[in-house]
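Worked Example 4.2. Consider the chain below.
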Amino acid sequence: MDTDVVVVGAGLAGLRCAARLTELGHEVVVLEEGDSVGGRVRTDVVDGFRCDRGFQVLGPAYPAVRRWVDVAALDLKPFGAGVLVRRPEGLRVVADPVREPALLGRTLRSGYLAPRELAALARWAARVLVDPKGVMRQADSTLAESFDAAGVTGRLRREVLEPFLAGVLVDSHGRTSANFTKLLVRMFALGRPAVPATGMQALPEQLAAPLGDRVRLGSRVEAVTPSPGGVDVRVNGARVRARSVVVATDPAGASGLTMLPEPVTRGLVTWWFEAPEPPTRLPLVAVDGRREGTTPPGPVWNTAVMTAAAPSYAPPTRHLVEATCLLDRPDGDAPESVVLRHVGDIYGADTSGWRTVTRHRITAALPATPPPLDPRSPVSLGDGVFVCGDHRDTASIQGALVSGQRAAEAVHAQL
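Applying the procedure from the previous section yields the following C-alpha cells:
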C-alpha cells in the first residue's frame, strides 16, 4: 500500500479533505493535474495585473470560511454594500444605508425604494436572516417563481436584483433554486464580499500550505479502480495504490473517473481591461438596468472597477476593470468591441483608450442549482471510493469546503 488516501484534485474541496484527513492521522497524497492548486479558483498575473479566472469574491460570513480559513492573513479588500445601476437618465446607486451611510442620499434619490416592493422583498428574505436551516427544509421553487409569489415584481427586481443575481448565479433566466439564492443573499447581508489582496488564488494556496509535498502537481489521474483490499489509481501511466480514494475534481472529471452522471454546469466569460482613468471610484458592482421590453441589453451582466476595491490588483497608479458575460445567452461570446462598448454605456465612459489585459472563457464555472435544493449528495460511492466538490453540496466556496470536510469524515469512519 503506497498511502492511506489519495485525493484526486487540489481545488478547495480536495484541499480541505486532505487537511482534515491529515489532522486525523492518515497518510494522504493529493494528485493535481494542473501546474498550481485551486481548481476553478485561480488568479493569472498578466503585466502586473491580477485577473481571477471568473469574477469571484469571498464571503467572509460563510461558516466554513470562518472555521477553516485564516481570513486575516488573506488581507481581504471588500466591495461596497451596494450596486451601481445604469438607467437612461444616468448611473444610480442602490446601497445598504446602514453599512454605506455616505451613499444614503444617492440611494434615496435612486427611484428604486418603492415601499410596496421593499415590503415584498423583506417578506421574501425575512426567514433566511433568522432561520437559515429552516429555509433549507421549506418547499422550494425557482428564483423567478419565488419573486412572483412574494410580490417582488417591480423595478427593483427587474433592474437591480435580477441582473445582479444573474451574474452571481451564472443564470440569466431565474431558474436557480430560490432557497439556495436566499442563503447566498444572507451571506451578502452578513458580510461584505471581498477579494484577497493578491487575488482569489491566495485562498487555495493558504489551504495547501500545511500539506507541503503531499500535494503533487502535474499528476494526471487516468483511472480509479477498486480492487481487493484497496483502490488502484493510474497516474501519468504509473500506479499508486491506496486504502481509499477521494475524487475531488471538477464535475466533468468526477463523472469520468467515477461513472457518476455529469451534472449540468453554467458558463461565463470574464474580460479584464486596463483603463487610463477609472470610470468610477466607488467599489461597487455595476449592472445595466435598462430594458428593451423585458430583455436586458447585453452582453455584459456585471462590471466592476477592481482597483476601486483592491488597488493591489494592478501596478501602482493603474486601473483594472472586469466585465462578465453569461454563456446561457446568445451574446455570451460577444467580441471585444461589443463588450467594451457596453461597459462604456454602463459607466457613461469613453472606452476607446482601454486595453484588454486578458479574457477567460469558463464553460463550467458553477454547477447548476435547480429546485428543489439538495445540499447533501452522498460522498461515499462504495468500494473505498469517495467524491467531493461543490457539485455534491452547494455551488459555492462554502459548499466546496463543507463537501471536502464531509468526505474526510466519511473516509476516516471507513478506515
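The chain has a mean pLDDT of 96. The two ends are 14 Å apart (CA to CA). Compare this with Example 4.1 before moving on.
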